Amino acid sequence: MKKISGFLFGGLKKKTLFLVLGMLLITVVIVAFASAYQNRMLISIVGETRVEQQKAISQTSEETMHQVIAGTLVNSTALQARIADNDFAEIVNDTYMLQTMAQGLIERRNSLSPAELALPDPSLDGIPSAMVLSEEGVDYTLSEYLPAVGHMGSSMLAMVRNSDKIAGCFIGLADGTHFGVDDHSANRFDENGELIPFPVRERPWYRGAVETGGLYFTGIERDAFSGSCGVTCSAPVEVDGEIVGVVGIDILLDSMSDFINTSASSAGFACIVNDHGQVIIAPEKMPFFEITTADRARDLRETDNEELSRFITNALAEPTELTLLNIGGRDFYVAGSPMPTVGWTVISLVDKEVTEQPEKMMLAEYDRINDEASGKFRDGTDKAIKSGQLVFILIVLVGTCAALLVSGRIARPLEEMTENIRDSSRTGRLFEMKDSYRTNDEIEVLAEAFDDLSKKTRQYIEDITEITREKERVSTELSMAQQIQSSMLPHIFPAFPNRSEFDIYASMDPAKEVGGDFYDFFLIDNDHLCMVMADVSGKGVPAALFMMVSKAILKTNALAGKSPREILTTANETICSNNKMQMFVTVWLGILEISTGRITAANAGHEYPALARGGDFALLRDKHGLVIGAMEGVEYKEYEIDFKPGDRLFLYTDGVPEATDAEGRLFGTQRMLDALNAARDAGAQEILGGVKKAVDGFVGASEQFDDLTMLCIEYRGPGADAEKQ
Predict the structure, then answer these.
(1) What whole-number distance in Å separates Cα of residue 367 and Cα of residue 267?
(2) DSSP secondary structure string, 226-288?
């Protein structure tokens, strides 16, 4: 220890001073060299990273947009096709009703009093009214059938008034007369006020129905009087083996094309193509998809664009996947979905260039930000070099003075702090702030940091304890939910040990603790077994709750003695009436008449069942309706399956064919059928076990993506007991 200028210097003070000065010099030199090296490396890395990030942005954006468009465009096209098909189905049903009505009236014409008939009245223009027309030279008062079909007037008026899709309905007779209802009376007269002859048997709707001998849809045709364009649905009326007339309905395409027009944007649009490859409905001013009359409209199946022609042909036959086509020199993403009722298809198109705009905008913004940041970085580097030189001098001076002034105050609080920390490590007591640490310098900051760390450590321990407790509670509740869900489904097998006419087995493996799939089977009475296979949208607890409600509604309606069609219709109305979460469920429901082996079934958007009739399993492509919960007012259709002893039916959810391996490949229906046929002679439980084993072997270590639910029933027939004896 030495005394210099009245100050005691040595020991910790001396060491502190030399240490501070030495560390400052070494640090400054190292920082200077490191900064220079890092600056050069950073500039190089930034340039390389910029290129890589641009590639990543482009690739990610393209893949993301393709996935979004693939899911959105295909699904929206299918939904639009179902909606449009339902509209045309109504027209078809109304046309058949007019056909039946006309045929009955003509057959009973001799027993009916003649109906009152009237020519067009110009004063009723704009008001739906019944009127008689005829071909040139034909006297309608001499018609044999017109007085009978005139009784259809009130029914035709009701159709026109009660439908926003029907412009008019009518019947044209083989004797050249015409009786119909519409709201255009004035245009039946020429400029001299004379009634214009109407060439009934020359109209496309008449010729088409007569030539085909059945239901017929025209292309776009001009009205004989107004000149407006539209489509007509017609059907022949046959009496005693002879076609005596044709009934028809003019369709208001304007009302049916609302959803098409609303789809048009700078990005894309949708259109409807008929079974002749002609565009029927499309937004206005869409090149290559213009709407024109049938005699001028081109067949898109026979264009110079082979890819487009092939796509249109496929879209008329079955739903298509997302396809990239070049149309008129521009690339479009396209998807198609057929309309089974009329044999037409809905086509949706999205301009690929528009989908690439987000990518271009992101790249432009990224370049702007990168250039701006690079400029700021260079300016900052220059300023940092100059500032560093000044800071170096100041650090040396200030460091020397500070080391001399504070070194004496460092030792004592540091020693106490060290002892306090050692005591904490020995006893477990947390570090506490003391007045001796309040030195208004780094020591106080360090002490406060230790004190704050101690408090946070205590709080962290308490938080971890609470989180662990909450996690255990949630885990327990989810486990209970899984047990409750499992108990809601039939799980005791054999399910009906006293019934030998059939063997049934089912299983469900949820993707999460609880799932949205469910199955059910129960005896409605001693001779009827109800079977249900369903898949709720979503996963987890919400789907499980929705599943329980849906299961209860379906079972209640089934036990009430309703048919499958009535069960699904009632269930849809019940769920749609209070479906705030906008969830839906696909359902296959069938009722087996045990004594005969006949199954009456209905399908609400569910997977095709697999059926084995004395041989291999094959998909039964049954009639599909809209999923339950999507839209009110849906009517479902039934179909029948005649079971023979030894026949088997396999039901499943989409978790089976959509099981995915580590490479992203789907298990698919073909692998499912192969697994079924590998165990086709086994019992129902062994068949399900074989499919589950095949799925597990295909998926491997990949995480289960969706619930895996299956049901299999083998029909043995009412004589199964006797055969066993």
Answers:
(1) 26
(2) T--EEEEEEEEEEETTEEEEEEEEEE-HHHHTHHHHHH-SSSEEEEEE-TTS-EEE--TT-TT
pTM over 0.85: no
Q: Read off the DSSP letter of residue 576.
A: H
Tens digits of residue pLDDT in 459-477: 766 677 676 676 666 555 5
Instruction: Judge contact between 433 and 447, C-beta under 8 A.
Output: yes
Direct distance between the N- and C-terminal alpha carbons of the chain, in angstroms, rounded to an integer: 115
The first and second tokens of residue 621, run together, are 């492509």
438's tokens:
């309040």
Distance CA 476, CA 583 (A): 27
- Round to whole Å and give the CA distance between 314 and 293: 24
Count CA atoms within 13 Å of residue 203 on its CB side: 35
CB 691 within 8 A of CB 710: yes
Cα 714 to chain centroid, rounded: 34
- Checking phi first, is residue 215 left (phi over 0); if not, alpha (psi -120 to 50) or beta? beta
Asked if pLDDT for residue 483 goes beyond 60, the answer is no
Return the structure tokens found at 571: 């269930």
Exposure string of 583-604, with b = 16+ CB inside 10 Å and e = fewer, is bbbbbbbbbbebeebebbbbbb
CA–CA dist 141, 601 (Å, integer): 52
Which pLDDT band holds residue 503 (cuts at 50, 70, 90)?
very high
CA distances to 224, 530, 539, 562 from 557, in Å: 52, 11, 25, 6
Q: Which two tokens stand for residue 600?
A: 């009456």
Q: Please give the pLDDT value at position 4.
A: 59
Question: Which 8-state DSSP code applies to residue 537?
Answer: S
Q: Can you read off the two tokens belonging to residue 64? A: 């993301």
Peptide bond into 494 cis (omega under 30): yes
Chain centroid to CA 323: how far? 18
Give, in order, the Cα–Cα distances in Å from 383 to each of 81, 303, 368, 377: 66, 67, 23, 10
Using DSSP's 3-state secondary structure scheme, residue 598 falls into strand
CB-hemisphere CA count at 13 Å for 423?
10
| Main-chain dihedrals φ then ψ at residue 686, nearest 5 degrees | -65, -35
